[in-house]
Design brief:
The complex is a heterodimer of chains A (356) and B (288). With 356 residues, chain A is mainly beta. Chain A is 7% helix and 52% strand. The chains are: A mainly beta (356), B mainly beta (288). At the A-B interface, strand 8, strand 9, strand 11, strand 12 and strand 16 of A face strand 3, strand 4, strand 5, strand 9 and strand 17 of B.
Chain lengths: 356, 288
């Protein structure tokens, strides 16, 4: 009796050891190299600093609080200015605030005037110049020279907006998604439905324009992904959510044209356009931005919650590699490959992520 | 005008009439209805709601409903600016939505989800562009903005609209309608500067404008609804005029073209407000 019991215990112990050995040898994964952030430079921002930076093509736009301007990747300042409520700025041009309510002056990074144009509320999205019009129901798109390219009126106010290179999508507060192509033509109008109260809370468009993701509706809230077909956009995947947001929800279709990030109560949701990935990155954020470093397969996320912000490095879909808390005064974060530029109203800095 | 447009216009009118029958179910959200600019006023475009200029005034829910969307800050996540820094949406029964822009949310209003008529949604603020709080009534079933005057308690008004100027336009050239000076034959547009004084004393839009030639009605617009289809902004339930073709960049109203052939033409313009006050102006035009 005792002998049999001992034999069973021995077999159990041996079996466990074998299972552990099999797990380590058969399902082994290489450990990722340690990721560290290496400071490169930090500069103080003084209004009017100008002149020494390289060619405009290499300049990067910057905006924090009421200050804006341009700098080079090696930390030379090209132009730093300030305005009462800041100014819309992109790498190729910026809008100089004007005392006239509707007149805008478009300038290049050297501060030279490109043109004057009429706009209610000009802004940049994905590097493209637009103006919000019609009490928040309309959009004007401009070319790089500030000439009006097209205008588009939505049926009611927008609660969500996203622009790619070839596609702009507005989500209305009455629950419709409308897509507008590069010529200002409607390419789709779609009401996701499926909820007690229709509303579009967030939308993201892939840079390619192939995918549109949106968080819509109240009771129950939904994540929906539309994909471009031969002639129109169709539902590619969707899922119901546990959230009850009644405010803007950040939704991003990543540059790999595959992963969708969206705000959740318990973190940042990671979803694939075909619905095969459904997981959560344990990072609580009111809003966030993301950049993908293709060369290393690492994504960098800047997550903001209240006055706090942090940078999170992760491997897709949701493997955390590290996180760095940013100073409270950080208002500007920009990624370029594995470089991160951060800044506040009076300072600007760069650090690079490196694998040891 | 196509039959489809006419039919949808008639349906819209029926919907507006039905809404009007249940009018005053909504309450004025601010300043006891003393709005600064109303539906159709030119505010760098056709105003689809009402604008209150009150500073530090309370803004209340126009009816029982549920808050479906609140955005505060300079812009939405994708960069689209928020007019007045706040956008608040309340969903009501019968698929009506009220939309509020430019108010300041307080701690007592930030937890609201279900609201009763008269509940405080926030305060109006003096915003940089001077627009104060804007308020819109939107029929989500028809996907149209409805003139709030149709849905809200009537305001005492005994002043008729005014007609500030009327010009004829041919091939880009504008002519003052001068009874003594003849005009040549052609297809003319009428450019009209007509306004109705709002409860706060500003120059707002009338509710109805009619244009008659020799006693025969040639154009009529009723400021009842505004909507958009396929990116085009359309005005007035019965007619569906394209906004850009009706409202000139300077805010004047464009009617026509009207063929004026030789002889004397009697041009009559009748502008009315929502209370029924009328202003009629007649011009005698000599056409050669």
């Amino acid at each position: 009796m005792n002998e049999g019991k001992e034999r069973r215990v021995t077999f159990s112990v041996l079996g466990t050891i074998v299972v552990i050995l099999v797990y380590f040898f058969v399902f082994a994964e290489p450990l990722s190299a340690e990721l560290s952030a290496v400071p490169q430079w930090k500069v103080a921002l003084g209004v009017g600093a100008a002149g020494t930076a390289s060619a405009p093509a290499e300049l990067l736009a910057f905006a924090a609080g009421n200050r804006y301007g341009y700098f080079s990747p090696d930390g030379e300042l090209a132009l730093i200015a300030e305005a009462q409520t800041g100014a819309p700025v992109a790498d190729t041009s910026y809008i100089e605030p004007s005392s006239a309510k509707t007149a805008a002056v478009l300038r290049n990074p050297r501060g030279e005037e490109i043109t004057k144009f009429t706009a209610a509320l000009p802004f940049y999205a994905s590097g493209r110049l637009f103006s919000a019009e019609g009490d928040g129901t309309a959009l004007i798109a401009y070319d790089e020279y500030g000439s009006k390219a097209w205008s588009y009126s939505f049926p009611c106010q927008l609660g969500a907006f996203s622009a790619g290179d070839q596609l702009v999508v507005g989500g209305t507060v009455d629950g419709w998604l409308e897509g507008v192509d590069a010529r200002g033509q409607n390419v789709f109008s779609f009401a996701p439905g499926g909820s007690r109260l229709p509303v579009v809370l967030g939308v993201g468009v892939s840079r390619s324009g192939n995918w549109v993701a949106a968080v819509t509706g109240i009771d129950r809230q939904r994540l929906i992904v539309l994909g471009r077909g031969a002639h129109d956009y169709r539902v590619a995947s969707h899922r119901y959510l546990e959230s009850d947001f009644r405010e803007p929800v950040r939704v991003i279709v990543m540059e790999d044209d595959r992963h969708v990030l969206y705000r959740r109560d318990d973190g940042i949701g990671v979803w694939s356009v075909d619905g095969s990935i459904d997981t959560v990155l344990p990072v609580r954020a009111d809003t966030f931005d993301v950049a993908l470093d293709d060369s290393r397969g690492i994504a960098y996320l800047v997550a903001r919650r209240g006055r706090k912000s942090e940078i999170v490095a992760f491997r897709l879909p949701a493997t955390l590699l590290g996180r760095i808390a940013l100073p409270d005064s950080s208002e500007f974060v920009r990624f370029s490959g594995s470089s991160v530029y951060i800044g506040g109203r009076t300072w600007l800095a760069r650090f690079d992520f490196m694998e040891d | 005008m196509s039959k489809t447009t006419m039919r949808s216009g008639m349906l819209a009118l029926a919907a507006v009439a039905a809404l009007a029958a249940t009018a005053a179910a909504f309450e004025w959200p601010a300043d006891a209805g003393k709005f600064r600019f109303g539906f159709g006023a030119f505010r760098n475009g056709f105003l689809r709601g009402a604008e209150f200029g009150v500073a530090e005034g309370l803004v209340r829910s126009a009816d029982d409903g549920e808050l479906t969307f609140v955005a505060t800050g300079p812009s939405l996540p994708g960069g689209y600016p928020i007019f007045g820094g706040t956008l608040l949406v309340v969903s009501h029964a019968s698929d009506m939505i009220t939309i509020y822009e430019g108010l300041q949310r307080g701690p007592s209003s930030s937890y609201l989800k279900n609201v009763k008529a008269g509940d405080i949604l926030g305060r109006s603020t003096a915003v940089p562009n001077g627009r104060g709080v804007s308020f819109y009534t939107y029929d989500a079933r028809a996907r149209r903005f409805i003139n709030p005057l149709i849905l809200l308690p009537r305001i005492v008004d005994d002043k008729p609209p005014a007609i500030r100027s009327a010009m004829l336009s041919l091939e880009g050239q504008e002519l003052v309608i001068d009874q003594a000076r003849p005009v040549r034959q052609g297809a003319y547009y009428l450019l009209l500067d007509a306004f109705d004084t709002t409860p706060s004393g500003a120059a707002g839009a009338p509710f109805e404008v009619r244009v008659l030639l020799d006693g025969s009605e040639r154009a009529r617009v009723v400021y009842d609804a505004a909507w958009a289809v396929g990116g085009a902004s359309l005005l007035f339930g019965a007619t569906g005029l394209v906004e850009d073709s009706f409202q000139a960049p300077d805010g004047r109203l464009r009617f026509g073209p009207f063929n004026l052939s030789s002889g004397r033409v009697i041009l009559t313009i009748i502008a009315s407000d929502y209370a029924g006050n009328k202003r009629e102006q007649t011009y005698s035009v000599s056409v050669q």
